[in-house]
Amino acid sequence: MKIRRNGVIMGAWLALLALSGAASAQETFPNRPVRIVVPYSPGSVTDVFARIIAQNMAAQWNGSIVVESKSGANGSIAAEEVARSAPDGYTWLLVTTFFSASPALDTKLRWDPVRDYIAIGQVCRAPNFFIVPVSLPVKTVAEYVALAKAKPGTLNYSHPGKVSTGHLGFELFKKLAGIDVTAVGYRGYPQMVPDIASGLITSTFLSANQALAQVQTGSIRIIGAINDGRSKYFPDAPTMAEQGFAEAQVTPWFGVVVPAGTPQPIVDRISKVLETALATSDVQQKLDIAGCEAKSAPLGQFADIIKADVALWARVVKDAGITAD
Length: 325
Fold this sequence. Notes:
By secondary structure, the protein is α/β, with parallel strands linked by helices. It contains 11 helices and 11 strands.
């Protein structure tokens, strides 16, 4: 009986030590470098946004945050690695459209945006712009739709890869407008922009920084802003809603998630530091220059945004008959 009682006492003591160790780890977080995994190549806008917030957050902690690129498989390589990482707060994933759209395209996906992660917070929203080459005789979305209906199947649009907003967002617009426009996929913006400027591609959705560079050359025309309201980047461009396509107004967002199971105190600490970073004029200015307006949406708010987009892109993929191949 004495041996059994001693065993119970020892078990309780070990459990207490484990709880004490976990509490201590949470209180001292972070005490080693944190990784932000980016699902695209170095130099991509996602990589740039990650570095902007990492610099400020690391300074707040007087620690180190390393940005690591893990591109491939439309973001799934990075997403799966983070989902399988230890839920200790030291591995984060910077996410965008691929994160909420991938489940609709791949039924064999080995990660789930809701089940396998905790949403820390939104970083910024980057409006896209409806672009046509100046050689195309349209100046409004209505004129584009009219031309597409008059010549079905003759117009095309480019996108920088499946599950990008440029891809799924345009497919949503096509569905709403009832037009037949051929999709042309590229490996990224650098490959497709010259074809837009030359007129080989007759339309696309471009981010603010990409659009600005092309507008300055005089090779393209902006016919619409894909944003909640008129964008400060191109204030004269009417929104899709102003032109009768409010449901096509899908603005790309960027945010941070961590593996499911990460202790709530650590989640709260990361969220607080991210919110502080986004409130600083320095971070806001840097994101603004990169074409992404700082717009926080902490914890539960960001989780709701992700869930809403999962449902939206599932409908778009189904309606458009898009497949993973």
